[in-house]
Design brief:
three-stranded antiparallel β-sheet, 13% strand, five-stranded parallel β-sheet, alpha/beta
């Protein structure tokens, strides 16, 4: 049995049925190389596999071994490849479920591959490879009978709960919810809960963008205080401060600006990965650079805040006269004057600093975080 996910009860049932059907020994063979972004990390998964094999699988008829293989998410072609690889490890049967090695749904919400495509190709090449494909449909839980069954073998009128790796990650783990016992063994649930704490203890990056003088730093500082008052650990990465330390020596050319944003994003990503909140306040004028930073994070863990202040207001607030120097040509690459600012198309939050005071804007962000459950 090949997997890139923690095993839920449906997976266990498939393995048990496969072993029973051929009176065989199970090689539980999870991949521990690169998998899909957002997947549970290999170290956490291996701890969960060990808990299962030590407590619920017959040690005389099962073996846990790791394979340093990267997922290609190539669907049916990868299923055949996986069969060939396992044949070289000595296996003569291979379990293939629905959507084997699939990346999931496409941008239109439809399955990237046909759900049964991998099973069909596995059967097609089974004899040539010398590996018999054991085919199983989606396994579901029947609460009225407290048992598991393939969805194609139950009446349409019967109620059931679905089980899947995606459901495990998106509906439970990333929301900080503990897995119910019908979904996963208590030992597995405890291990996964350690890696995925309650949502109010998970990390998030709040990325301010806007013109110089828009009010980013002021709002960011107030927000940092408010978050600390709520008991969250916060790291403030202000653009001016970062340039004196992390990005010292960089110019204001486009290339160096992108490097600066990339460095801020990297640090922010590490903070968030360890459960902290990062508040980043940098002009970050280019969409491409901001989008590259966004890709570091899970979709719900990056909040772009566009401080939408007109350039005329920014110039009025400019007590240092930097805008005036830029207009006289004394400063090159100054955003909004002789270098472009590309506003976000779909920022999670847009702030008006003309009508609202800085604290009001900070509380708008705080309220948004509370709605997401990231702050209590």
């Amino acid at each position: 049995f090949q997997t890139r996910n923690p095993l839920h009860r449906g997976h266990e049932e498939i393995c048990e049925r496969a072993m029973s059907s051929i009176d065989g020994t199970l090689l539980l063979h999870p991949v521990v190389g690169m998998t899909k972004q957002g997947d549970v990390d290999a170290f956490t998964r291996v701890r969960s596999y060990k808990a299962l094999t030590e407590n619920y699988f017959d040690k005389e008829s099962s073996l846990l071994a790791l394979i340093p293989l990267a997922m290609r998410l190539a669907g049916q072609r990868e299923a055949v490849w996986h069969m060939l690889i396992r044949r070289n490890y000595g296996a003569n049967h291979f379990i293939v479920g629905r959507d084997h090695a699939s990346p999931g749904i496409d941008s239109n919400g439809t399955p990237f591959y046909e759900p049964t495509a991998a099973q069909e190709m596995a059967l097609q090449f089974s004899e040539e490879l010398g590996v018999k494909a054991l085919i199983y449909d989606e396994m579901v839980y029947l609460p009225d009978e407290d048992k598991y069954e393939e969805v194609s073998k139950i009446e349409k009128t019967r109620s059931y709960f679905s089980l899947s790796g995606t459901k495990m990650r998106e509906e439970f783990l990333k929301q900080g919810k503990k897995l119910p016992e019908w979904f996963a063994r208590p030992e597995v649930a405890d291990i996964l809960t350690q890696t995925f704490p309650p949502i109010q203890k998970q990390g998030v990056c709040i990325w301010f963008t806007g013109l110089s003088g828009a009010g980013k730093s002021t709002i960011a500082e107030i927000l940092t205080v408010l978050l600390n008052e709520c008991g969250r650990n916060v790291t403030l990465l202000d653009g001016d401060v970062v340039r004196t330390h992390l990005s010292k020596g960089l110019s204001f050319s486009r290339e160096d600006r992108d490097t600066n944003i990339s460095r801020i994003g990297f640090v922010a990503g590490e903070v968030v990965r360890h459960g902290g909140i990062t508040v980043c306040a940098a002009v970050s004028p280019y969409k491409a650079a901001r989008n590259e930073v966004r890709r570091i994070f899970e979709p719900s863990r990056f909040i772009e805040v566009f401080v939408d202040t007109p350039i005329s207001v920014c110039e009025e607030r400019d007590v240092k006269g930097i805008y005036a120097k830029a207009r006289r040509g004394e400063i090159k690459y100054f955003t909004g004057v002789n270098d472009p600012y590309e506003p976000p198309d779909k920022a999670e939050i847009v702030l008006d600093t003309v009508s609202n005071q800085a604290e009001e804007n900070a509380r708008i962000i705080l309220d948004h975080l509370k709605e997401l459950g990231l702050v209590m």
